[in-house]
# Entry
Amino acid sequence: MNEAARLQPSADGTADIGGELHALVSRLFPICRSITGEGVRRTLAILSEHVDITVREVPSGAQVFDWTVPQEWTVRGAYVRAASGKVVVDLAASNLHLVGYSEPVARRMPLCELRTHIHTLPDQPDLIPYRTSYYSRNWGFCMAHRDYLALEDGEYDVFIDTTLADGALTYGEVFLPGETGREVLLTAHICHPSLANDNCSGLAVLARVARTLAARRIRFGYRFLFAPGTIGALCWLAGNEAGLSRIDHGLVVSCIGDGGGPVYKRSRRGDATIDRAMEAVRCDGREVTMRDFSPFGYDERQFCSPGFNLPVGLLQRSAFGTFPEYHTSADDLDFVRPEHLASSFRMIMDVVDILETDRIPLNLSPKGEPQLGRRGLYSATGGHTATSDITMAYLWVLNLADGSHCLLDIARRSGLPFSAIAAAATRLEACGLLGKSQA
Amino acid sequence: MNEAARLQPSADGTADIGGELHALVSRLFPICRSITGEGVRRTLAILSEHVDITVREVPSGAQVFDWTVPQEWTVRGAYVRAASGKVVVDLAASNLHLVGYSEPVARRMPLCELRTHIHTLPDQPDLIPYRTSYYSRNWGFCMAHRDYLALEDGEYDVFIDTTLADGALTYGEVFLPGETGREVLLTAHICHPSLANDNCSGLAVLARVARTLAARRIRFGYRFLFAPGTIGALCWLAGNEAGLSRIDHGLVVSCIGDGGGPVYKRSRRGDATIDRAMEAVRCDGREVTMRDFSPFGYDERQFCSPGFNLPVGLLQRSAFGTFPEYHTSADDLDFVRPEHLASSFRMIMDVVDILETDRIPLNLSPKGEPQLGRRGLYSATGGHTATSDITMAYLWVLNLADGSHCLLDIARRSGLPFSAIAAAATRLEACGLLGKSQA
Amino acid sequence: MNEAARLQPSADGTADIGGELHALVSRLFPICRSITGEGVRRTLAILSEHVDITVREVPSGAQVFDWTVPQEWTVRGAYVRAASGKVVVDLAASNLHLVGYSEPVARRMPLCELRTHIHTLPDQPDLIPYRTSYYSRNWGFCMAHRDYLALEDGEYDVFIDTTLADGALTYGEVFLPGETGREVLLTAHICHPSLANDNCSGLAVLARVARTLAARRIRFGYRFLFAPGTIGALCWLAGNEAGLSRIDHGLVVSCIGDGGGPVYKRSRRGDATIDRAMEAVRCDGREVTMRDFSPFGYDERQFCSPGFNLPVGLLQRSAFGTFPEYHTSADDLDFVRPEHLASSFRMIMDVVDILETDRIPLNLSPKGEPQLGRRGLYSATGGHTATSDITMAYLWVLNLADGSHCLLDIARRSGLPFSAIAAAATRLEACGLLGKSQA
# Structure
């Protein structure tokens, strides 16, 4: 079924998957998100239109490992007005203008004082940066450096209408049960405001993956997590410690809608099955650039901390911090493209196919080659110079099906595509030449 | 004795080994061989003039693993005659003209029907290809594409005078007992008709190796197998399963008479002693190109199937399928040259020397260096800038003779030739500085 | 304390360490040393001005493993005088003129006989070579090839006023006890006559390292060995077998005063901590060129013989045998430079710092990242594109502090300098986030 689905993408309605994903990104983009608050709840509500999401709330003040869940941040408005009455910065124009978790302010101050609370990007003078101050009480504005330079001396009214009060941290979880008790974790951070690639793209693509898998028969259970960065992942980990041993594979997904990469950062283990699956997959025919684990990035930092060391890697198109639009107002709805969202979706579905399909085949006729010719698997005429990739796939699978190689191992060693190896294994199983071990 | 023999190649009559080998190839070339039949028997009879061969026959219909021994094929003649009376293809002109295992035919047919039974090489229009149809009853002719294009419309008389009947599969075996119960397997396929490199060359060289070793004191027993490809190897494996655990090293030899390569394909194990010995040997001073195992090729496919996984590699000059003469009428007596046959013979004898000589030396004076100077093994004058390769060989052997390195390991790590390391070990043993462990 | 000392090199009087080291080399240079005799004793006496050296003597004739301690060599003078009365070679002009361990001679002989006892360097006609004949009784002179060619036919008076008689082999040892029972071995050969780089430089630098460490609190005990090459090292090994298991790290130091390299030859083990520490250290900002072990060189040959296999490598600037001055009269006081001696000293002190500092940290908060921000170890403002090396060091240490990685491992895997990793670990320990395992 999976095979057929891949060959006929329109069969499950993925014909214009790119357009559909971009439309979803466009709905998520305007919401003013942070690590807590209504923005997260509204985002989860939209995603829930696609897949059945369980929304969980953890109260402010709860201890999660070395951390404390912060107060909930509510934002109603924020602007800076010159003495002339001209509004020089306004949250209504861009969610990025206000530093995340800014405390309430309503005060007149001279430019010199205001300046110490303004963040800009001198090297990218037209762009608004993205800044937060979650765990240190503060306030601030972000603006284009060009506008900042144009500020005239004088007094300014600063108005930040926010509340920091006990409430909750919100995250969403989807679980699609599989035939076995083993699980795959797929997660995207939900805490960034109007940044299209980082990470409306990840939220949209994973929600669509969940909807697609919900309609399939699956071997693994799939657990989708839409949670605020760091503190959200820690909340989930703290609440699910007992079940972590069920997770065989995991991916953190972010910045998945631009045309770069893809780039994959291996899990801390470095040789997990997910690491080798990402090596086998292609994106629009391109190989995935493989990077070794490092402890900076998204929530793989938490999943791969030494106390958990889960087999979780990070999948991106352009790697965070390497593209000029990163964490600026240029990460907008033009930066992510339908065709890139579609190819990212297909790549993740292909990885899922690999995880679902991978197994350890066992050659039931291991002494010499079995006679493929009488089963129609080998050319009846001998003497040709070259052999086909299909025949080579049969020969490789049979040769390495000694109980110590999975299909991913065989694909890697043979240099043949995983799909060719998997197809050969399926055919050989049908012929009774191959049995299955546990994957 | 081996040392002396190598230094004085004429001592055992190898002065014109190249000429002798080419003469033997020339006698084998005209015979019409297939996987069964008189061609194999006549070939074994000629090889028996050089070395004592035990001829074995396995009856048609015998089960060998997943296979059945086919009926014996007897061929008396085959031709195609145009309505004009002109014979357009004739087995008498080339053994390659008839598809191997063609069933008997005596029938007139129009050109359009005949064409479906003709094999050519459009890209090499002057050459006749080599084709077989062992396990699917069929018939056919191979011809030069240029001649094929010249066939005129009309009726043709097709006459194939063959018999497919119960009989036997024939193969030959030579066993030279050694001082230990361990064995080396050397094998060449005997089933190809008039192809000089593939594999009259392998048959001739291995027969000559057998004759040379028969006159030597040898540590290993050497088992030579001259058997039809695939089914012959399977017959031998099926009949000798109990003894396979005695095989420490093995080589499949084919296409050994041209001027390319040499190319060695490692055993499935990848790090067998034979794999490392081939890395240490030279052919006319050239290193051997090393390739990793793949499950396509000659009978290493059977020996390296997962149920056996024997330490057997494939040695060739030009690798099969990579030279334009491969499986065509251009693989003739001009393509194989006396000097290449001679250097291939010497290379195999050098590998045999390595296998015979390799051992795990044990330093009997392991604390500090022993005083080589008073044994005449070190320069009496100190202070020179460089040391000789001979001294370095002593120092390397002593340093690594801790019971966990064989001479091949020491040669590889030191970068010195195996022969230098072996000579140093022999000298150090004579001095009482080194004892031998089991190899 | 070590940290502070490194930041303020003048604090322990190392401000002009280069000048001080060159002055010491200059005092050692003129002494006529060999593997036994007064030259060694005078050298040890000078080194004793810097550090408390225990002088040990082993009697001639003593058996050490496969060797016998030779007779002691005393040299009073040596020259060759032409019939004209002109002295053509004189030990008084250069200690290199006399072949080491020359037996006494007082005889007139023709030039043709004299020539068989003269060593020159035809390719470096102005330089005197260095030659010895320790274990084979002989005599000889070394001279510039240009002077050798100018010798006129005729009779020559050869006068070598030496004694070979029972006495002792002398070596010096310094032991600085540490807090643990584990030891570091640092050794330089003391047997070469007037060769400044090989090895007055090694003697001077190690004596200065000993003096510096004598004033520090140290975890390891440091054992300094100033011994004649080969036979001296063997004497020490024979006398200290029971204690060898206490040696965790070791360095042989020679040719450490020129401007080349540095070059480090790994221990026979190849992955000893000292091997990885040398990979982490820098010399004037340059990486150390790493070479694999080979059994030719200095006394690492003895320490790394298979019966001991100690974790001892060889540290040099230019590798022996590779620079034109090697073992010639050009290895003089101009060839070694104060600045190179100083940078070599600092490099060895940095290696000592690594050995002293290396440990296996243990993350006490291993589930997720601990909250670095509230401890002032993380930027309060989030959203920046890049993170600092300091933050990365915290993250790497925490992530790999699982009890199976030492700081050297973490430095290697992170690509950050060892000093940055060590500083981060110290800070994290102070915060209570990290505990120490045994190194």
